[in-house]
Design a protein that fits this description.
heterodimer; A: Arc Repressor Mutant, subunit A; 10 helices; B: about 280 residues; mainly alpha; 12 helices; about 70% helix
Protein backbone atom coordinates (compact mmCIF):
# COMPACT_ATOMS: atom_id res chain seq x y z
CA UNK A 1 0.00 0.00 0.00
CA UNK A 2 1.42 3.40 -0.89
CA UNK A 3 2.32 5.44 2.14
CA UNK A 4 0.33 8.45 0.93
CA UNK A 5 -2.75 6.29 0.49
CA UNK A 6 -2.40 4.83 3.99
CA UNK A 7 -2.10 8.37 5.36
CA UNK A 8 -5.22 9.45 3.47
CA UNK A 9 -7.16 6.48 4.88
CA UNK A 10 -6.06 7.29 8.43
CA UNK A 11 -6.95 10.97 8.02
CA UNK A 12 -10.33 10.22 6.46
CA UNK A 13 -11.07 7.86 9.32
CA UNK A 14 -10.19 10.65 11.74
CA UNK A 15 -12.76 12.88 10.04
CA UNK A 16 -10.72 14.80 7.47
CA UNK A 17 -13.06 15.73 4.58
CA UNK A 18 -10.30 16.31 2.05
CA UNK A 19 -8.87 12.88 2.72
CA UNK A 20 -12.35 11.38 2.42
CA UNK A 21 -12.74 13.15 -0.88
CA UNK A 22 -9.48 11.62 -2.09
CA UNK A 23 -10.79 8.17 -1.25
CA UNK A 24 -14.05 8.81 -3.09
CA UNK A 25 -12.14 10.04 -6.12
CA UNK A 26 -9.82 7.06 -6.04
CA UNK A 27 -12.40 4.29 -5.57
CA UNK A 28 -15.54 5.54 -7.36
CA UNK A 29 -14.85 3.97 -10.72
CA UNK A 30 -13.99 0.60 -9.21
CA UNK A 31 -17.08 0.61 -7.03
CA UNK A 32 -19.19 1.56 -10.05
CA UNK A 33 -17.81 -1.33 -12.11
CA UNK A 34 -18.49 -3.79 -9.31
CA UNK A 35 -21.97 -2.40 -8.72
CA UNK A 36 -22.85 -2.51 -12.40
CA UNK A 37 -21.72 -6.10 -12.72
CA UNK A 38 -23.82 -7.16 -9.76
CA UNK A 39 -26.92 -5.10 -10.54
CA UNK A 40 -26.66 -5.14 -14.35
CA UNK A 41 -28.19 -1.67 -14.44
CA UNK A 42 -26.44 1.67 -14.81
CA UNK A 43 -28.79 3.70 -12.64
CA UNK A 44 -28.82 1.07 -9.93
CA UNK A 45 -25.04 1.04 -10.01
CA UNK A 46 -24.98 4.82 -9.52
CA UNK A 47 -27.28 4.42 -6.50
CA UNK A 48 -25.00 1.73 -5.10
CA UNK A 49 -21.94 3.96 -5.50
CA UNK A 50 -23.69 6.70 -3.56
CA UNK A 51 -24.96 4.39 -0.81
CA UNK A 52 -21.55 2.77 -0.48
CA UNK A 53 -19.70 6.00 0.21
CA UNK A 54 -22.42 7.24 2.54
CA UNK A 55 -22.15 4.03 4.54
CA UNK A 56 -18.39 4.33 4.54
CA UNK A 57 -18.70 7.88 5.85
CA UNK A 58 -21.14 6.90 8.59
CA UNK A 59 -19.20 3.85 9.71
CA UNK A 60 -15.60 4.80 9.12
CA UNK A 61 -14.77 4.53 12.81
CA UNK A 62 -15.61 0.81 12.61
CA UNK A 63 -12.98 0.27 9.96
CA UNK A 64 -9.96 -1.57 11.33
CA UNK A 65 -6.62 -0.58 9.94
CA UNK A 66 -5.41 -4.14 9.65
CA UNK A 67 -7.76 -4.85 6.74
CA UNK A 68 -7.47 -3.14 3.37
CA UNK A 69 -9.91 -0.30 2.85
CA UNK A 70 -10.56 -1.43 -0.74
CA UNK A 71 -11.71 -4.83 0.48
CA UNK A 72 -13.93 -3.27 3.12
CA UNK A 73 -15.36 -0.82 0.62
CA UNK A 74 -16.10 -3.57 -1.87
CA UNK A 75 -17.81 -5.49 0.90
CA UNK A 76 -20.07 -2.52 1.58
CA UNK A 77 -20.71 -2.07 -2.14
CA UNK A 78 -21.54 -5.74 -2.65
CA UNK A 79 -24.05 -5.69 0.18
CA UNK A 80 -25.60 -2.43 -1.03
CA UNK A 81 -25.97 -3.99 -4.48
CA UNK A 82 -27.46 -7.18 -3.02
CA UNK A 83 -29.96 -5.20 -0.96
CA UNK A 84 -30.95 -3.25 -4.02
CA UNK A 85 -31.46 -6.21 -6.34
CA UNK A 86 -33.25 -8.24 -3.70
CA UNK A 87 -35.61 -5.32 -3.19
CA UNK A 88 -35.99 -4.88 -6.94
CA UNK A 89 -36.66 -8.57 -7.43
CA UNK A 90 -39.43 -8.57 -4.85
CA UNK A 91 -40.92 -5.57 -6.60
CA UNK A 92 -40.69 -7.18 -10.04
CA UNK A 93 -42.18 -10.47 -8.84
CA UNK A 94 -45.27 -8.54 -7.97
CA UNK A 95 -45.35 -6.57 -11.21
CA UNK A 96 -43.82 -8.43 -14.15
CA UNK A 97 -46.55 -9.43 -16.60
CA UNK A 98 -46.28 -12.82 -18.21
CA UNK A 99 -47.08 -13.52 -21.84
CA UNK A 100 -49.38 -16.21 -23.26
CA UNK A 101 -46.81 -18.97 -22.77
CA UNK A 102 -46.48 -17.97 -19.16
CA UNK A 103 -42.90 -16.82 -19.58
CA UNK A 104 -41.60 -13.70 -17.97
CA UNK A 105 -40.08 -11.36 -20.53
CA UNK A 106 -36.57 -11.86 -19.23
CA UNK A 107 -36.73 -15.62 -19.85
CA UNK A 108 -37.70 -15.32 -23.49
CA UNK A 109 -34.29 -14.29 -24.72
CA UNK A 110 -32.48 -17.49 -23.85
CA UNK A 111 -35.28 -19.82 -24.88
CA UNK A 112 -35.38 -18.65 -28.48
CA UNK A 113 -33.31 -20.94 -30.66
CA UNK A 114 -30.30 -19.04 -32.00
CA UNK A 115 -29.31 -19.29 -35.62
CA UNK A 116 -25.55 -19.47 -36.28
CA UNK A 117 -25.45 -16.24 -38.29
CA UNK A 118 -27.15 -14.35 -35.48
CA UNK A 119 -24.62 -15.62 -32.99
CA UNK A 120 -21.86 -13.68 -34.65
CA UNK A 121 -23.52 -10.47 -33.53
CA UNK A 122 -21.57 -9.43 -30.51
CA UNK A 123 -24.41 -7.20 -29.36
CA UNK A 124 -26.68 -10.19 -29.16
CA UNK A 125 -24.06 -12.20 -27.31
CA UNK A 126 -23.73 -9.38 -24.84
CA UNK A 127 -27.46 -9.41 -24.32
CA UNK A 128 -27.43 -13.12 -23.71
CA UNK A 129 -24.58 -12.88 -21.25
CA UNK A 130 -26.41 -10.08 -19.43
CA UNK A 131 -29.63 -12.13 -19.41
CA UNK A 132 -27.84 -15.22 -18.10
CA UNK A 133 -26.16 -13.20 -15.35
CA UNK A 134 -29.54 -11.67 -14.57
CA UNK A 135 -31.02 -15.10 -13.93
CA UNK A 136 -28.49 -15.99 -11.23
CA UNK A 137 -29.67 -15.56 -7.68
CA UNK A 138 -28.36 -12.35 -6.06
CA UNK A 139 -25.86 -14.30 -3.94
CA UNK A 140 -24.67 -16.37 -6.90
CA UNK A 141 -24.22 -13.29 -9.00
CA UNK A 142 -22.34 -11.40 -6.30
CA UNK A 143 -20.08 -14.36 -5.52
CA UNK A 144 -19.38 -14.94 -9.20
CA UNK A 145 -18.63 -11.27 -9.88
CA UNK A 146 -16.26 -11.07 -6.93
CA UNK A 147 -14.41 -14.21 -8.05
CA UNK A 148 -14.53 -13.82 -11.81
CA UNK A 149 -14.17 -10.08 -12.35
CA UNK A 150 -12.60 -8.85 -9.14
CA UNK A 151 -10.31 -11.83 -8.60
CA UNK A 152 -11.13 -12.05 -4.90
CA UNK A 153 -10.28 -15.19 -2.96
CA UNK A 154 -12.80 -17.59 -1.47
CA UNK A 155 -12.14 -16.45 2.11
CA UNK A 156 -12.76 -12.80 1.25
CA UNK A 157 -15.90 -13.62 -0.71
CA UNK A 158 -17.17 -15.74 2.15
CA UNK A 159 -16.58 -12.89 4.61
CA UNK A 160 -18.26 -10.39 2.29
CA UNK A 161 -21.37 -12.50 1.84
CA UNK A 162 -21.50 -13.83 5.38
CA UNK A 163 -21.01 -17.42 4.26
CA UNK A 164 -18.69 -20.22 5.25
CA UNK A 165 -15.85 -20.71 2.72
CA UNK A 166 -17.30 -24.02 1.56
CA UNK A 167 -20.67 -22.41 0.93
CA UNK A 168 -19.06 -19.52 -0.95
CA UNK A 169 -17.16 -21.95 -3.15
CA UNK A 170 -20.33 -23.88 -3.82
CA UNK A 171 -22.23 -20.69 -4.66
CA UNK A 172 -19.61 -19.77 -7.25
CA UNK A 173 -19.73 -23.26 -8.68
CA UNK A 174 -23.53 -23.14 -8.99
CA UNK A 175 -23.27 -19.80 -10.76
CA UNK A 176 -20.74 -21.17 -13.25
CA UNK A 177 -22.88 -24.24 -13.85
CA UNK A 178 -25.93 -22.12 -14.60
CA UNK A 179 -24.00 -19.81 -16.90
CA UNK A 180 -22.50 -22.78 -18.66
CA UNK A 181 -25.92 -24.27 -19.22
CA UNK A 182 -27.08 -21.10 -20.91
CA UNK A 183 -24.00 -19.79 -22.64
CA UNK A 184 -21.70 -22.62 -23.61
CA UNK A 185 -23.42 -23.09 -26.94
CA UNK A 186 -22.76 -19.45 -27.80
CA UNK A 187 -19.17 -19.59 -26.61
CA UNK A 188 -18.59 -22.66 -28.79
CA UNK A 189 -20.23 -20.95 -31.78
CA UNK A 190 -18.17 -17.81 -31.37
CA UNK A 191 -14.84 -19.69 -31.15
CA UNK B 1 -4.13 -38.25 -12.26
CA UNK B 2 -6.00 -41.08 -13.94
CA UNK B 3 -9.65 -40.30 -13.26
CA UNK B 4 -11.56 -37.75 -15.32
CA UNK B 5 -11.86 -34.31 -13.77
CA UNK B 6 -15.23 -33.34 -12.34
CA UNK B 7 -16.92 -30.13 -13.40
CA UNK B 8 -16.18 -28.66 -9.99
CA UNK B 9 -12.48 -29.48 -10.37
CA UNK B 10 -12.44 -27.85 -13.80
CA UNK B 11 -13.91 -24.68 -12.33
CA UNK B 12 -11.38 -24.73 -9.49
CA UNK B 13 -8.60 -25.28 -12.00
CA UNK B 14 -9.72 -22.28 -14.04
CA UNK B 15 -9.61 -20.03 -10.98
CA UNK B 16 -6.34 -21.49 -9.73
CA UNK B 17 -7.96 -22.95 -6.62
CA UNK B 18 -7.33 -26.63 -7.34
CA UNK B 19 -4.78 -28.12 -4.96
CA UNK B 20 -3.61 -30.70 -7.51
CA UNK B 21 -3.40 -28.14 -10.31
CA UNK B 22 -0.23 -29.47 -11.91
CA UNK B 23 -1.51 -33.03 -12.12
CA UNK B 24 -4.84 -31.82 -13.43
CA UNK B 25 -3.16 -29.79 -16.18
CA UNK B 26 -1.11 -32.84 -17.17
CA UNK B 27 -4.30 -34.88 -17.27
CA UNK B 28 -5.94 -32.37 -19.61
CA UNK B 29 -3.06 -32.83 -22.06
CA UNK B 30 -3.52 -36.57 -22.15
CA UNK B 31 -7.33 -36.86 -21.92
CA UNK B 32 -9.27 -35.52 -24.90
CA UNK B 33 -12.66 -35.60 -23.15
CA UNK B 34 -11.47 -33.59 -20.16
CA UNK B 35 -9.39 -31.30 -22.40
CA UNK B 36 -12.39 -30.48 -24.58
CA UNK B 37 -14.59 -30.00 -21.55
CA UNK B 38 -12.10 -27.58 -20.01
CA UNK B 39 -11.66 -25.60 -23.24
CA UNK B 40 -15.43 -25.15 -23.53
CA UNK B 41 -15.69 -24.01 -19.94
CA UNK B 42 -12.81 -21.59 -20.40
CA UNK B 43 -14.28 -20.17 -23.63
CA UNK B 44 -17.59 -19.54 -21.89
CA UNK B 45 -15.97 -17.85 -18.89
CA UNK B 46 -13.73 -15.71 -21.10
CA UNK B 47 -16.77 -14.66 -23.11
CA UNK B 48 -18.52 -13.57 -19.89
CA UNK B 49 -15.42 -11.61 -18.92
CA UNK B 50 -15.84 -9.48 -22.00
CA UNK B 51 -19.27 -8.27 -20.89
CA UNK B 52 -18.92 -4.49 -21.16
CA UNK B 53 -19.33 -2.01 -18.33
CA UNK B 54 -20.40 1.58 -19.12
CA UNK B 55 -17.40 3.89 -19.13
CA UNK B 56 -16.89 6.46 -16.42
CA UNK B 57 -14.40 9.24 -17.10
CA UNK B 58 -11.52 10.46 -14.96
CA UNK B 59 -13.75 13.15 -13.44
CA UNK B 60 -16.26 10.60 -12.22
CA UNK B 61 -14.87 10.41 -8.69
CA UNK B 62 -15.18 14.13 -8.32
CA UNK B 63 -18.74 14.09 -9.65
CA UNK B 64 -19.62 11.39 -7.13
CA UNK B 65 -18.16 13.48 -4.32
CA UNK B 66 -20.14 16.54 -5.43
CA UNK B 67 -23.34 14.49 -5.46
CA UNK B 68 -22.53 13.17 -1.99
CA UNK B 69 -21.98 16.58 -0.44
CA UNK B 70 -25.60 17.37 0.47
CA UNK B 71 -25.93 13.97 2.14
CA UNK B 72 -22.67 14.42 4.01
CA UNK B 73 -24.15 17.68 5.26
CA UNK B 74 -27.14 15.79 6.59
CA UNK B 75 -24.84 13.33 8.33
CA UNK B 76 -22.93 16.22 9.84
CA UNK B 77 -26.10 17.99 10.90
CA UNK B 78 -27.26 14.85 12.71
CA UNK B 79 -23.90 14.58 14.43
CA UNK B 80 -24.03 18.21 15.49
CA UNK B 81 -27.53 17.77 16.88
CA UNK B 82 -26.20 15.07 19.16
CA UNK B 83 -23.41 17.17 20.59
CA UNK B 84 -24.52 20.72 20.18
CA UNK B 85 -22.49 23.43 21.80
CA UNK B 86 -20.55 26.31 20.35
CA UNK B 87 -17.27 24.60 21.16
CA UNK B 88 -18.33 21.26 19.73
CA UNK B 89 -19.66 22.91 16.61
CA UNK B 90 -16.39 24.70 16.10
CA UNK B 91 -14.43 21.48 16.64
CA UNK B 92 -16.63 19.63 14.19
CA UNK B 93 -16.24 22.42 11.73
CA UNK B 94 -12.45 22.47 11.97
CA UNK B 95 -12.46 18.67 11.70
CA UNK B 96 -14.40 19.37 8.57
CA UNK B 97 -17.56 17.28 8.48
CA UNK B 98 -19.86 20.12 9.27
CA UNK B 99 -20.40 21.15 5.69
CA UNK B 100 -23.64 22.93 6.48
CA UNK B 101 -21.73 24.81 9.11
CA UNK B 102 -18.94 25.39 6.63
CA UNK B 103 -20.94 27.77 4.52
CA UNK B 104 -22.32 29.57 7.53
CA UNK B 105 -18.92 29.81 9.15
CA UNK B 106 -17.37 30.98 5.91
CA UNK B 107 -19.99 33.71 5.84
CA UNK B 108 -18.99 34.67 9.38
CA UNK B 109 -15.36 34.73 8.35
CA UNK B 110 -16.24 36.90 5.41
CA UNK B 111 -18.14 39.33 7.60
CA UNK B 112 -15.28 39.41 10.09
CA UNK B 113 -12.87 39.95 7.28
CA UNK B 114 -14.90 42.77 5.88
CA UNK B 115 -14.87 44.40 9.29
CA UNK B 116 -11.12 44.21 9.17
CA UNK B 117 -10.85 42.30 12.43
CA UNK B 118 -10.13 38.75 11.56
CA UNK B 119 -8.40 38.71 8.23
CA UNK B 120 -6.09 41.71 8.08
CA UNK B 121 -4.75 42.65 4.70
CA UNK B 122 -1.04 42.87 4.03
CA UNK B 123 0.77 46.07 3.16
CA UNK B 124 0.57 45.56 -0.59
CA UNK B 125 -2.39 44.29 -2.58
CA UNK B 126 -2.22 40.55 -3.35
CA UNK B 127 -1.77 39.48 -6.91
CA UNK B 128 -4.39 37.63 -8.97
CA UNK B 129 -5.32 34.20 -7.63
CA UNK B 130 -3.97 35.04 -4.18
CA UNK B 131 -7.25 34.93 -2.32
CA UNK B 132 -6.47 34.72 1.35
CA UNK B 133 -2.70 34.79 0.92
CA UNK B 134 -2.02 36.83 4.01
CA UNK B 135 -4.60 35.21 6.24
CA UNK B 136 -3.86 33.12 9.29
CA UNK B 137 -3.49 29.49 8.16
CA UNK B 138 -6.60 28.02 9.79
CA UNK B 139 -8.82 30.88 8.71
CA UNK B 140 -7.43 30.64 5.23
CA UNK B 141 -8.00 26.88 5.11
CA UNK B 142 -11.55 27.24 6.39
CA UNK B 143 -12.34 29.83 3.78
CA UNK B 144 -10.73 27.79 1.00
CA UNK B 145 -12.61 24.62 1.96
CA UNK B 146 -15.89 26.53 1.98
CA UNK B 147 -15.11 28.22 -1.35
CA UNK B 148 -14.08 24.89 -2.88
CA UNK B 149 -17.36 23.41 -1.71
CA UNK B 150 -19.26 26.34 -3.20
CA UNK B 151 -17.49 25.96 -6.56
CA UNK B 152 -18.20 22.21 -6.59
CA UNK B 153 -21.90 22.83 -6.04
CA UNK B 154 -21.95 25.52 -8.68
CA UNK B 155 -20.25 23.20 -11.13
CA UNK B 156 -22.87 20.56 -10.46
CA UNK B 157 -25.71 23.02 -11.20
CA UNK B 158 -24.01 24.14 -14.41
CA UNK B 159 -23.41 20.54 -15.47
CA UNK B 160 -27.02 19.63 -14.82
CA UNK B 161 -28.18 22.62 -16.82
CA UNK B 162 -25.86 21.71 -19.66
CA UNK B 163 -27.21 18.16 -19.74
CA UNK B 164 -30.86 19.10 -19.27
CA UNK B 165 -33.11 17.91 -22.07
CA UNK B 166 -36.56 18.91 -23.17
CA UNK B 167 -38.86 15.91 -23.16
CA UNK B 168 -42.31 15.54 -24.72
CA UNK B 169 -45.04 16.92 -22.54
CA UNK B 170 -48.40 17.20 -24.18
CA UNK B 171 -47.88 18.78 -27.59
CA UNK B 172 -44.57 20.46 -26.81
CA UNK B 173 -41.17 19.46 -25.50
CA UNK B 174 -40.23 21.02 -22.21
CA UNK B 175 -37.57 20.76 -19.51
CA UNK B 176 -38.30 21.01 -15.80
CA UNK B 177 -35.40 22.88 -14.18
CA UNK B 178 -37.06 23.52 -10.81
CA UNK B 179 -34.46 21.44 -8.93
CA UNK B 180 -31.55 23.30 -10.52
CA UNK B 181 -33.31 26.58 -9.74
CA UNK B 182 -33.54 25.69 -6.08
CA UNK B 183 -29.82 24.90 -6.00
CA UNK B 184 -29.01 28.11 -7.87
CA UNK B 185 -31.05 30.20 -5.42
CA UNK B 186 -29.20 28.62 -2.51
CA UNK B 187 -25.86 29.43 -4.09
CA UNK B 188 -26.44 33.08 -4.99
CA UNK B 189 -26.06 34.59 -1.50
CA UNK B 190 -22.87 32.65 -0.77
CA UNK B 191 -21.49 33.53 -4.16
CA UNK B 192 -22.02 37.22 -3.45
CA UNK B 193 -20.03 36.95 -0.22
CA UNK B 194 -17.13 35.13 -1.84
CA UNK B 195 -17.10 37.61 -4.72
CA UNK B 196 -16.93 40.52 -2.25
CA UNK B 197 -14.00 38.94 -0.40
CA UNK B 198 -12.16 38.23 -3.64
CA UNK B 199 -12.65 41.83 -4.77
CA UNK B 200 -11.53 43.18 -1.36
CA UNK B 201 -8.43 41.01 -1.56
CA UNK B 202 -7.64 42.42 -4.99
CA UNK B 203 -8.10 39.00 -6.61
CA UNK B 204 -9.69 40.32 -9.77
CA UNK B 205 -9.66 37.04 -11.69
CA UNK B 206 -11.56 35.11 -8.99
CA UNK B 207 -13.94 38.03 -8.46
CA UNK B 208 -14.57 38.19 -12.22
CA UNK B 209 -15.42 34.51 -12.50
CA UNK B 210 -17.67 34.70 -9.43
CA UNK B 211 -19.43 37.70 -10.97
CA UNK B 212 -20.09 35.79 -14.19
CA UNK B 213 -21.20 32.81 -12.15
CA UNK B 214 -23.59 34.96 -10.13
CA UNK B 215 -25.24 36.28 -13.30
CA UNK B 216 -25.76 32.78 -14.62
CA UNK B 217 -27.06 31.53 -11.27
CA UNK B 218 -29.52 34.43 -11.14
CA UNK B 219 -30.61 33.74 -14.67
CA UNK B 220 -31.24 30.09 -13.82
CA UNK B 221 -33.04 31.01 -10.59
CA UNK B 222 -35.24 33.60 -12.31
CA UNK B 223 -36.17 31.56 -15.38
CA UNK B 224 -39.54 29.82 -15.61
CA UNK B 225 -39.30 26.41 -13.97
CA UNK B 226 -40.40 24.80 -17.22
CA UNK B 227 -38.54 25.80 -20.36
CA UNK B 228 -39.51 24.92 -23.87
CA UNK B 229 -36.87 23.55 -26.20
CA UNK B 230 -35.85 26.95 -27.58
CA UNK B 231 -35.65 28.62 -24.19
CA UNK B 232 -33.55 25.79 -22.85
CA UNK B 233 -31.19 25.87 -25.82
CA UNK B 234 -30.86 29.62 -25.49
CA UNK B 235 -29.98 29.37 -21.78
CA UNK B 236 -27.54 26.55 -22.43
CA UNK B 237 -25.92 28.59 -25.20
CA UNK B 238 -25.45 31.58 -22.90
CA UNK B 239 -23.79 29.34 -20.31
CA UNK B 240 -21.57 27.86 -22.99
CA UNK B 241 -20.68 31.19 -24.58
CA UNK B 242 -19.43 32.57 -21.29
CA UNK B 243 -17.25 29.48 -20.80
CA UNK B 244 -18.35 29.67 -17.18
CA UNK B 245 -18.13 25.94 -16.50
CA UNK B 246 -14.51 25.88 -17.61
CA UNK B 247 -13.68 28.99 -15.58
CA UNK B 248 -15.34 27.56 -12.46
CA UNK B 249 -13.30 24.37 -12.89
CA UNK B 250 -10.05 26.31 -13.26
CA UNK B 251 -10.71 28.43 -10.17
CA UNK B 252 -11.92 25.34 -8.29
CA UNK B 253 -8.73 23.51 -9.17
CA UNK B 254 -6.61 26.44 -7.92
CA UNK B 255 -8.62 26.54 -4.69
CA UNK B 256 -8.13 22.82 -4.14
CA UNK B 257 -4.39 23.18 -4.65
CA UNK B 258 -4.39 25.90 -2.04
CA UNK B 259 -6.48 23.75 0.30
CA UNK B 260 -3.86 21.04 0.03
CA UNK B 261 -0.97 23.33 0.75
CA UNK B 262 -2.74 24.99 3.68
CA UNK B 263 -4.01 21.81 5.35
CA UNK B 264 -0.88 21.02 7.43
CA UNK B 265 -1.67 24.09 9.47
CA UNK B 266 -4.96 22.51 10.54
CA UNK B 267 -3.94 18.91 11.08
CA UNK B 268 -0.55 19.65 12.52
CA UNK B 269 0.79 16.78 10.42
CA UNK B 270 2.64 18.82 7.85
CA UNK B 271 4.76 16.26 6.11
CA UNK B 272 2.24 13.44 6.08
CA UNK B 273 -0.59 15.72 4.99
CA UNK B 274 1.22 17.05 2.01
CA UNK B 275 2.21 13.51 1.11
CA UNK B 276 -1.45 12.63 0.73
CA UNK B 277 -2.05 15.15 -2.02
CA UNK B 278 -4.59 14.34 -4.72
CA UNK B 279 -2.06 13.80 -7.43
CA UNK B 280 -0.19 11.23 -5.42
CA UNK B 281 -3.12 8.99 -4.71
Amino acid sequence: MEQSYAVAVAQARAGDPMAFRQLVERHSRGVFRLAFRITGNEQDAEDVVQDTFLKLHRNFEKFEDRSALGTWLYRIATNCALDLIRGRKRHLQNREPEDEQGMAAVDKLSSEAPSPDRLTLSAELRERVAAALGRLSPAERAAFVLRHFEGQGIETIAATLGLRPGAAKNTIFRAVQKLRGELEVYAAASE
Amino acid sequence: MQRHLSEEQLVELYYGDLAEGREATAHLDSCKACGDDYRQLRAMLEMVKEAPVPERGPEYGREVYVRLLPMLEENAAEEVEHSWSVLDAWKNFVRGWSWTGATAMAALLVVAFMAGRMLPRGGSPPTGGDLGKNQAPIQQSVLLVALGDHLDRSELVLLEMQHAQAIPEGRVNSADISTQQQYAEDLIADNRLYRTVAAQEGDASTAGVLEDLERILMEIANSPSKLDEKELESLQKRIEDKGILFKVRVIGSAVRDKEQSSLPAISGGGASRSASGRGKL
